[in-house]
Amino acid sequence: MSQSLRTPREHASGYPLIEAPADTLVMYCSDHRFQGAVRDFLDEELELGGNYYSLAFPGSVQILTFGEMMPKFTNSLLRPLRFILKHGGVKRIVMVAHEDCQWYKTFVPLHHTVRQDAKQQQIVDLLRVRKMLLTDKPNLEVQAYYADILPAR
Asked: Smallest Cα–Cα separation from 103: which of 116, 122, 120?
């Protein structure tokens, strides 16, 4: 049985492109529950105004810590990171991890021999990736943030 490919729908956006160059790359968790909060933090607290490169994957930067254990897995995510760093004019990297991360609850315990509190492991991983990035690019500004869940108001 063959299927024909349908022509993608066209869409004309009413939103203008941001013409100013971005000098910041943001790496954060792809958890749908935190997307709005991450955008608000980046735009309101860090005043990025939507002008940044973004890489989102489960567990934020944790995957980058598996280079020795899972090199193909890690390298597949390093490619876009290296591309952006090489061609994007990035001077600053912002990394964001968050409370109640499902990646750290389910995937990480299966592959880490050292067991510690998820928040502590996330902080260790953020600092490890920060060190790794600065080793490769010592002139980068690398910031790490951990987002706690605030109680409902």
From this structure: 122
Structure tokens at 120: 């502590």
Q: What is the pLDDT of residues 29-80, one digit of tens each?
A: 999 999 999 999 999 999 999 999 999 989 899 888 877 777 787 788 888 8
Dihedral, 56, 60, 61, 65 alpha carbons, nearest 10: -120
Here the contacts of 42-45 (C-beta below 8 Å, separation 24 or greater) are: 42/94
> CA 83, CA 140: separation in Å to the nearest integer?
15
Which pLDDT band, with edges at 50, 70 and 90, does 4 fall under? low
Return mean pLDDT, the chain: 87
Dist. CA 30–CA 133, nearest whole Å: 21
Burial 25-48 (b: 16+ CB within 10 A, else e): bbbbbebeebeeebeebbeeeeeb
> Which pTM does this prediction carry?
0.84
103 is written with which tokens? 């990646």
The closest of 138, 134, 131, 147 to 60, measured between CA atoms, is: 147
Say which residues have a Cβ less than 8 Å from residue 11's Cβ, sequence separation at least 6. none
